[in-house]
Design goal:
By secondary structure, this protein is an alpha+beta fold. The chain has one helix and nine strands; from the N terminus they run H-E-E-E-E-E-E-E-E-E. The radius of gyration is 25 Å and the shape is elongated.
Length: 182
């Protein structure tokens, strides 16, 4: 009887150790790096209106099941081509499923690639959903508000004067982005 009870306890202990080990490896798999690329457009809600096109590349570090921190860059095309450099924070709402919602905040600075303008603040909070294709490959769709500030030199010429002045712009846009995360 003692031998059967000892064997049963050892089997239960081995199963418990195996289950704990599987859980630990699952958590370790959720940590680490992932990458994403997105393309997007927007709907301007102010003047001067310029429909932006954007392409972004991001690298994330997943610190837990829900939190990911990263950095990104890309190209944004308003009336000028901008190069944003920003930090990004993503929070996954709920547990991972086929469709997983998330909220995201990107904030940084955008540089203008031409000499007649200066860049400015870049801010993009968004809400989105990821659709899992495979364990590491996901499609993502996000809708958000994008604020892009910049300054440019403007010239005005009439029959008597030639004026050059600095114009400060703030593009407020409802942005829609679609991409892939791997």
């Amino acid at each position: 009887m003692k031998r059967a009870l000892t064997t049963l306890l050892l089997c239960l202990a081995a199963l418990g150790a195996r289950a704990q080990n599987d859980e630990t490896s699952t958590r370790a798999d959720e940590r680490g790096f992932s990458f994403a690329t997105t393309v997007g457009a927007g709907f301007c809600i102010d003047k001067p209106s310029s429909v932006p096109f954007s392409w972004q590349v991001l690298a994330y570090y997943h610190s837990s099941r829900r939190w990911a921190f990263g950095a990104g860059t890309g190209l944004s095309c308003y009336e000028k081509v901008l190069l944003p450099l920003y930090g990004d924070v993503k929070y996954q709402i709920g547990r991972r499923r086929k469709f997983t919602p998330h909220v995201e905040l990107a904030a940084g600075y955008a540089f203008v690639l031409s000499g007649t303008a200066d860049g400015g603040l870049f801010l993009n909070p968004s809400v989105g959903v990821q659709y899992r294709l495979r364990s590491r490959l996901k499609l993502q769709l996000a809708v958000g508000f994008e604020l892009q500030k910049l300054e440019r030199l403007k010239t005005q010429t009439d029959g008597f004067f030639h004026k050059t002045f600095e114009e400060k712009l703030a593009h407020n846009t409802i942005s829609v982005r679609f991409g892939v995360c791997f």
